[in-house]
Design a protein that fits this description.
Helix 1 crosses helix 2. The protein has a seven-stranded antiparallel β-sheet with strand order 1-7-6-5-4-3-2, covered by helices on one side. The chain contains two helices and seven strands; from the N terminus they run E-H-E-E-E-E-E-E-H. It starts with a strand and ends with a helix. The longest helix is centred in the C-terminal third of the chain and has 33 residues. The chain has one domain: START domain (Alpha-D-Glucose-1,6-Bisphosphate, Chain A, domain 4). By secondary structure, it is α+β, with helices and mostly antiparallel strands. The chain is globular. This is Polyketide cyclase / dehydrase and lipid transport.
Length: 153
């Protein structure tokens, strides 16, 4: 199993940061993404609890289900289908108010299930996903700061 933990300070209000992060279809704005769509809307809001998002990227394809959604503090998800095949134990993103903005902490635990070469692929995907997650957080920071500026907050 591989574990990725990232944390980033974003100089914008927690509600804006949470909204920008949980706008699943905006994942398609990333350079490596081909498309990102919500294929099943959440129970109380489109991107919320129970939502299923499909991400088509250059190297991977994923279907993820939102398993916890506590606005504006927490979102958890799990991969329910992937190519290449993976087992996913945890996807958790926590948001906390800090002086001058929001701290975002993102954790995931997974393994790629490929016979014989799985361990090497796991390490490669861990490095790849670490870079992807850092890119997602960077993009989200840019959008959050711009939106906070537009809203005068």
């Amino acid at each position: 199993m591989q574990t990725i933990n990232l944390s980033r300070f974003i100089p914008a209000p927690i509600d804006i940061v949470f909204d920008e992060f949980t706008d699943h279809e905006r994942l398609s704005d990333l350079p490596m993404a081909v498309s990102s769509t919500v294929v099943v809307p959440g129970k109380t809001e489109k991107n919320g609890l129970g939502a299923v998002r499909r991400l088509n990227a250059v190297v991977v394809q994923l279907r993820e289900e939102i398993t916890a959604f506590d606005r504006p503090r927490l979102m958890e998800y799990r991969i329910i289908w992937s190519f290449p095949k993976a087992r996913h134990e945890l996807g958790r993103v926590e948001f906390s108010e800090v002086n001058g903005g929001t701290r975002v902490t993102w954790s995931t635990v997974f393994t790629v299930e490929l016979p014989i070469i799985g361990d090497r692929v796991d390490r490669a995907f861990s490095l790849l996903f670490s870079k992807v997650f850092a890119t997602v957080l960077h993009q989200m920071e840019k959008r959050s700061v711009a939106r906070a500026g537009r809203e005068g907050r």
